[in-house]
Specification:
The chain is α/β, with parallel strands linked by helices. Helix content is 49%, strand content 16%. It has a single domain, classed as Rossmann fold. The protein has helices at residues 14-23, 38-50, 65-79, 102-130, 141-145, 151-171, 189-192, 196-205, 214-225; strands at 4-8, 28-34, 54-59, 84-87, 133-138, 176-183, 236-239. β4 (84-87), α4 and β5 form a beta-alpha-beta unit. The longest helix is centred in the middle third of the chain and has 29 residues, at 102-130. The radius of gyration is 17 Å and the shape is globular.
């Protein structure tokens, strides 16, 4: 049995972990990328195996251009193909515009946008020769609407959305789809750090009244990674409790 080869970045925590678990099948092999959360990646691998799948963890610093290209090269060397790429990893460095430093801006753009660009470019080289592939980019409702204190984050996610539509046009004739998922506010370690007063204000902006769960995003990723989504490309799907209505 030839297994589908999947790479999920930021697979050691939160949404990435849920995506790896949801994509697990006995005919798939998942490379679980992590930057610094090795223990989380090991936990994800255990969840993948418990769900009937298989895979391995793989480390790379997404702030390092050489490591980025090497990540895809390692997958190709080990498995000789790449069928599904999920660009999930991301960072935040929040501050109001007048207090945001160049370093804060550059770090977020590097990891959230440039890393996605490099990984898509390197993955596309493999997928084009296969004449098949699926790229799923995790963006954010913030990239569509903006958010106080997140000029850098909003810019990075909006850029990935625009890049995805362009890359979808370029790769469509090779049977490669490129789509985005735009989560709203999802319960993760990141949202756990938000003060309760601000959390209450955010909930008031969500028509459904509550934060989503990582599994909500993972289920959309599962659909986009399936053959049911073979004729869908260049799209962004908001999973946000109605915020993007």
């Amino acid at each position: 049995m030839t297994k589908q080869i999947i790479l999920v970045t930021g697979g050691g925590t939160g949404i990435g972990q849920a995506i790896c678990e949801e994509l697990s099948r006995d005919d798939r092999y998942i490379y679980i990328h992590y930057g610094s959360s090795a223990d989380g990646a090991k936990e994800t691998l255990a969840k993948v195996e418990a769900a009937g799948g298989s895979g391995e963890i793989i480390q790379a610093d997404l702030a390092d251009d050489d490591a980025l290209a090497g990540l895809i090269a390692t997958v190709k060397e080990k498995s000789d193909r790449l069928d599904i790429l999920v660009n999930n990893a991301g960072v935040t460095e929040d501050a109001l515009l007048v207090r945001m430093t160049d370093e804060m801006y550059d770090k977020v753009i590097q990891v959230n946008q440039k890393a996605v660009f490099v990984l898509m470019r390197e993955a596309a080289k493999i997928m084009m020769s296969q004449r098949f592939g699926k790229i799923i980019n995790i963006i954010s409702v913030v990239g569509l609407h903006g958010n106080f204190g997140q000029t850098n984050y909003a810019a990075s996610k909006a850029a990935v959305f625009a890049m995805s539509k362009t890359v979808a046009k370029e790769l469509a004739t090779r049977n490669i789809t490129v789509n985005c998922i735009a989560p709203g506010f999802i319960e993760t370690k990141m949202t756990d750090q938000i003060p309760e007063k601000i959390t209450e204000k955010i909930r008031a902006q969500i028509p459904m009244g509550e934060f989503g769960q990582p599994s909500d995003i993972a289920k959309m990723a599962k659909f986009l990674a399936s053959s049911d989504a073979d004729y869908i490309t260049g799209q962004s799907f908001s999973v946000d409790g109605g915020m993007n209505m």
